[in-house]
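#lab-general

N.A. 3:47 PM
ok so I finally got the sequence cleaned up, no stray characters, all 95 residues accounted for. can someone with queue access submit it? mine expired

B.Y. 3:52 PM
send it over

N.A. 3:53 PM
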Amino acid sequence: MTVIVNTAWKHPKNIDWDKMQQDLTEGMKNSVPGMHVQWFEIDETTHGSVASFPSQVAYEKNLSLLEKSRKESIDEMGISMIYEVVGPVKAEAIS
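B.Y. 4:20 PM
back already:
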């Protein structure tokens, strides 16, 4: 069963989306197979994230890497997490 992680993050200054893409691309090199991440703009200093994991096992396997990456981002960029929600997909549709 797919697991979704949805977060929102506040940045101390305007987001540099080119740098964000580089960081995301680099970070995904070590992630579990089948993981999918999208970062989106909420406003100039806030971004959201939607990550999907192919299973609970994959989510748990990637959790320590995710926590390490978040700590580095908080320490280096001065960002702060606004919220996080995690849960299994229970309904899905594709057009």
